[in-house]
Amino acid sequence: MEIVRYSSFKNPESDIQSFYNWVNRLQNHTGRAYQKLELTTALGKTLVWKTGNPDSTVKLVIFPGFRTTPLFWDLDKGLDYYVNDFDVYLIETNGQPNPSDGNSPAIKGLGYGEWASELLDKLQLEKPIIAGASFGGQICMKLSMFSPDRFKAAFLLNPGGIQPISLSWKNIYSNLLPLLIPSKKNIATFLDNAVFHKPYHYLDPIPYSLLLDFEHLAITRYRDKTQKPYFMKGEFEKIKSPMYLIEGEKDLLFPAHKSVENAKKFFGTLRDSIMFPNVGHGIETYRPVHEEVAEIIKKLALKGS
Predict the structure, then answer these.
(1) 83-122: b (≥16 Cβ within 10 Å) or e
(2) Domains in the chain, start-ordered, CATH in brackets?
């Protein structure tokens, strides 16, 4: 696998410690401990968090969105719906603001799919369920293209790649503002306009503060060189694995109805698409989504498929 980009924290020692301090704050909020695993992969060191029921035969692997962490799934204690019944692995994707090495492959190749397959091998997971939000959904699709029989099914939550990013003025403004002037006020504007949909989809003060602090760390302390998600037009026929599409109707980055339309048109293995009204792009912070996904996974486990 060719490494084409390298991202890094500006001051790795202190910035990575800030990351771990943030994780400790999240653990205090959720009352849940995340076991840390460090694996050596083609992209260097990859950090994996483990939680849930280690005796469960159902293994769930979660890939995060761009400039996020898979621990966002627990900001509103969303992992409550998984940890009793599933063995859960949360992947800190290389090239993102986390302690994994900053190496990343070409986004338009199969490098991330190869890396994801290697991760499953290293974790000794034979046929897990995989899930990804936003950019994590694109990684799930890349894994399907690289090795379609490597997992039982994939859950794509507001995934990138099914359509181009929205060029609406509100979306462009909300995304660029915190990058150009990375104050917490401007990051909050991005979160309120592009990630959530108030008052229906929002976070209480403690998890919101955690999210805001993480994004401030990611934007101000991480030199992001990783190539960005792209529209995978012409590649969908290579996706052969069962797919479940989970959409927030108010997704500003990737408008939900177009994603559903494209998935139904291009995915020959689409098992279902579910739309959550009044939910924004940050769908992984919305507890009802996790309740629904967990129930579908339980049914898949009962069917043995």
Answers:
(1) bebbbbbbbbbbbbbbbbbbbbbebebbbbbbbbbbbbee
(2) 3-303 (3.40.50.1820)
Residue linked to tokens 């997971």: 125
Cα Rg of the chain (Å, integer)? 18
181 φψ region: left (φ > 0), alpha (ψ -120 to 50), beta (else) = beta
Per-residue pLDDT reduced to its tens digit, 88-142: 999 999 999 999 999 999 999 999 999 999 999 999 999 999 999 999 999 999 9
Q: Are strands 87-92 and 44-52 parallel, antiparallel or unpaired?
A: antiparallel
List C-alpha distances in Å: 257 to 124, 214, 304.
Answer: 37, 30, 31
C-alpha 115, offset from chain centre:
15
The predicted-structure confidence for 247-270, as pLDDT tens digits, reads as follows: 999 999 999 999 999 999 999 999
